[in-house]
Design goal:
heterodimer; A: 604 residues; alpha/beta; MetI-like fold; Rossmann fold; 2 domains; six-stranded mixed β-sheet; 12% strand; disordered N terminus; B: 301 residues; globular; disordered C terminus
Amino acid sequence: MTVPPIDGTVAAAAASGETARRRHIVVRLLQDPVAICCIVVLLLLTAASVLAPFLTDQDPIKSSLAETLAPMSQQHPLGADGVGRDVVARLLYGGQTSLAAACVAVLVAFAVGVPAGLFGGYYRGRADAILAWASNFIMAVPAIIILLVVMAAVSQSTYVAMAVLGLIVSPSVYRLVRASVVSVREELFVDAAKVSGLSDARIMRRHILPVVQAPSIIQAAQIFGVSIGIQAGIAFLGLGSPTEASWGAMLNDAFANIYSAPLLLLWPALIICMTTASLALLANSLRDTLSGSRRRPTRRSDRVRDASSSSEGSAPADFADVADDVLLAVDNLMVDYPVDGGRRTVVDGVSLTVCRGQVLGLVGESGSGKSQTAFSLLGLLPPEARVSAGRLLFDGVELKGLGRSAMNRLRGKRIAYVPQEPMSNLDPSFTIGSQLAEPVRQHMKVSAKEAKTLLLALLERVGINDPARVYSSYPHQISGGMAQRVLIAGAISCDPDLLIADEPTTALDVTVQAEILDLIRSLQAERNMGVILVTHDFGVVADICDRVAVMHTGKIVETASVQDLFSAPQDAYTRMLLSSTLEDAKPRSPLKSTPKLPKRAQTA
Amino acid sequence: MIAAVEAPEESHNGSEVPLLSIEDVTVQYPSKKWRSPDFLALKGVSLDIRAGETVGLVGESGSGKTTLGRAVLGLAPVTTGRIRYDGQVISAMNRKQRRTLSDEIQVVFQDPYTSLNPALTVLDILTEPLLTAGTGRAQAEQRVKDLLEQVHLPRDASNRLPREFSGGQRQRIAIARALCRDPRLIVCDEPVSALDLSNQSRVLDLFIEIQERTGVSYLFVTHDLSVVRYISHRVAVMYKGEIIETGDAAKVTTQPKEAYTQKLLLAAPVPDPARQASRRAARQKFSAKLHVAGPFESPAS
């Protein structure tokens, strides 16, 4: 028997749960039937233990040889044990000991773990290192052996044993609290509080402790359950005071009489199981409530539904109006998400066309639906999104209704993608080469060696000086601009017809942005690719786009050639956006003299 | 590196004394790896800010511009050099002494999503600095009403949580928090770069409006030359931990002297296809000439 690990999974789950949601946690917890059952069971057990003297007039300690292994009767509803003690009384009084001692363990664990975690996490430095060492040391010590030694040499009391257990599990509390504190102390609102002149104590109380609170409650429930189990284990081994009734001591006695009265084993086992299971399930419900996890559909639905059948019913295979050089033609694209009591439309009837060799800019502010449009074309929306379109033609082929595998054959090979955050789109645990080679081998059906040759040439093409070195590096070894070049090389590696770039330069410095735009422009011209470039920056639009579609609240408000859009914007929203650009604003003139002295200088 | 004009020792004697003077400041971080050299985030930076003035600090990521702002706020350790505020050396203060400065120097951070505690209401966020300073609760709440008006937020905003607001509105809350105790200097660390274009210019106008009314000074950190040109009286350009060029905004952001600043200016795209085409051509020519070009050349497109 060992101490079950109380690990960091709760920490991770709870840390992700926003603190703001805590307000309604009790309400939401009570919507979970499992949680309600667990709470009821635990409350009943506690009440029965506390009210033991009123529920039975039997003494749990006094043995009576005459009633050894007495059967169930009026006097002994569940019979008597091997030395003639009443089973019901022992269960009830044993609950007192077990629950109170488990409380002792939880209190000690938190009294030690929380301050240590707060202190170590907030101040870091040497104190943190010492605390971390001490916690590692305690964790390395075998808990059950320490407990046996303490009980044999120091005290037979269950309470002392549980206090020691609390100390032994306190590192898990310390680690949890420290992890929460470390993540929150880097937040800008803590910096802002420092600048506002708050004392450290106040910052901890107001900004840090609330974040720690929620995961701590989960942890407490777990420790409580564990300590009930450990108590039972110790008493089962025959340690513990003979003057204390406990569930574990009942197990020990029942085991001695397992052949003559097997039923005796059932009662304490049942109650221990019920208690620990309730605590474990309650902790689980708490964690789910805190992290706000919802049940999600198990599969991503890539399939784009048909919107035309429901609306005017435009001919299904009528491609006559599509010119030969049109690469992508989208009609009446809709994307919506389920929200409380309905669906929220984020892309609302978008129609656009992209020709070969053309760069289409999709411009808009945050929330305009521009990225959602791009993602829906790539089939990258989350599973709860519902996508429909009147028509979705790619190079003369209707994509609407295509299954997952057919879409996968198109994605990566003929439709490629360049993301906004280059770094988060590279897996840190694989080399760049292996990540690039995978899709090339998949789509082009070439050997690993051929793929490498091809990729090295491409890396050189996208402006990487030392392709072989970059090919064998890990993502953290290269800069953001370099990573974006790598991803562009990956995107064009299967010679796509259409490149969808979602804010490809937003995360980059302005000088790097210029180089990346140059690169996209030259690759696009060289390969006659169609490009959809999602951006919010009109400078980028002016630099690279041929046509522009301006999006606002899910709709395209204006589509025009780049010259027309800047010289004669038609829509009021476009004009508003263009007038917000600061590029041509007059520079501020230098400060002539101190205009008027600020208030404190006047009073000083 | 451009040395600042030496400030006179005594303060309170005229308009020529800078409100803030940064004198040859170095910030060094010990390296995380064993036996590798320490990281120098700032290499002897000097700059001063007068009362009522906006000094724009522009540079690319890793140039040290944010570190300089944090050093002024006491959030980054000054290894050598001095920062003086109103004649008083503030760079060597401990946390406790530093707290007395909280009604003088304030901050608006870049990310309005993480700079406001998600669990607190707007009222709690805005009264916190006032209550810390010993203002009574009723008085503090009245002050918050005035502040919300000043930053053009609805009055009923105070009982809501930050997540109920858009990015631009959140940044107004952050500005209101900075204004709470009538500071004389606000360090603005990329305060508009997370905002949409249309909000950007409105928030910048709010900054200017507040400055004209209260005479507050701004140290305005940004990577965007057009933002810095719009809001700053003077501009300092940072590169690899040093200030390489300073001057009036109009001069530095339109006819820069230094090659690096010219490169920055040419790299910023203009929202006009014809002018952008000529700027792009100029940039490519300039890069080729300087041999600091990207390792590839773009064919004409």
